[in-house]
Amino acid sequence: MIINTTSSNNAYVAIKILTGYTTGLNHEQKLRELEVLQRLSSVAPEESYDHCARLLTQFIHPGVEDDGEHLCLVMELLSSNIQHTLNALQGDFIPVPTVKRILKHLLLGIARLHTCGIVHTGMFAS
What we know:
Blueprint: E1 2-4, E2 12-17, H1 20-27, H2 33-42, E3 55-61, E4 70-76, H3 82-89, H4 96-115
Antiparallel strand pairs: 1-2, 2-4, 3-4
């Protein structure tokens, strides 16, 4: 979900809405996504672009009936994903130079996580 903020900078943000179950895991400290985003956001970026999204704020949205509360994470809006790239290229493959550029930025992001003491344990093509 992408919304326009009402702040004075009038910037777009990304909102990740966790399910009631996942929000419960976060409350039980079995899910560390909020903690990791808070750590990344508290460290000053080494460059103007450090390859990691920053958590701007978070809030709880009440669920419906038995759905439970939903933790909502408001983050910087970054550029597109792999699926958008494939759609823009109108093909079934990404040219090698583009793949190299994507991988470079992915690895720089993982390196940034490591400098903050964070290890990324899973990546999925979604």
